[in-house]
Amino acid sequence: MADNQQAAAGNENQPQFALQRIYVKDLSFESPNSPDVFQEQWKPQVSLDLNTSHSKLSDNQFEVVLSLTVTAKVGEKVAYIVEIQQGGVFMVQGIEGPQLGQMLGAYCPNILFPYAREAIDGVVNKGSFPALMLAPVNFDAIYAQALKRQQDEAKGEAAEEGSAH
């Protein structure tokens, strides 16, 4: 019996991660130049803006939100704009510091992206446009770049404070 209690206590200290919920927090689609844009030859320039954010819901629960904006233009005309905020609630326990940042800033958005991509593709099709399958995104590289930028900015601020004395 004591061995089972020790095993249970040992598991509490083990890192734990679980996806609890995935949902669309916000979704919008605009096609400001319809139906005129359907007369154009379909060779769109597609741009993608993305952002991630997270917030702590409780001691071990976090909401992560992946925000994507897709803009498709044909020439100078906007064919469509899709904006989505794909959310997820994740249980993260026994993971702290840089590992927690990596988990919330890269790993969780990686889980959310296919859901956002599917929602975007569906709404684009409902707008009578050809399917748009967004290419995979390397969230680890994006997170690493953001971390380096923050470190560089912190070094710059520290240097400015040092020279101000």
Question: How would you explain this protein's 3D organization?
Answer:
The protein is flat and about 60 Å long. With 165 residues, it is of the alpha+beta class. The protein has three helices and four strands. Helix content is 41%, strand content 35%. It has helices at 2-13, 97-126, 139-164, and strands spanning 16-30, 45-56, 61-74, 77-93. The protein has one domain: Bacterial Protein-export protein SecB (Roll). A four-stranded antiparallel beta sheet has the order 1-4-3-2.
Brief descriptors of the model:
165 residues, alpha+beta, Bacterial Protein-export protein SecB
Would you report the number of β strands? 4
Q: Which whole number gives the mean pLDDT? A: 89
Q: Total domains, how many?
A: 1
Tell me the overall shape: flat
Q: What strand order characterises the main sheet?
A: 1-4-3-2
Q: What is the CATH-assigned architecture? A: Roll
Distance N to C terminus: 64 Å
Please identify which CATH superfamily we are dealing with: SecB-like
CATH fold type: Bacterial Protein-export protein SecB
Low-confidence stretches: none
The Rg value, from CA coordinates, equals 21 Å
Question: Quick one: CATH class?
Answer: Alpha Beta
Family: Belongs to the SecB family.
Pfam family, one: SecB
Protein name: Protein-export protein SecB
Main location: cytoplasm
In terms of topology, how is this protein built?
Elements: H1 2-13, E1 16-30, E2 45-56, E3 61-74, E4 77-93, H2 97-126, H3 139-164
Antiparallel strand pairs: 1-4, 2-3, 3-4
Helix pairs in contact: 2-3
Keywords: Chaperone, Cytoplasm, Protein transport, Translocation, Transport
Main location: cytoplasm
Organism: Marinobacter xestospongiae
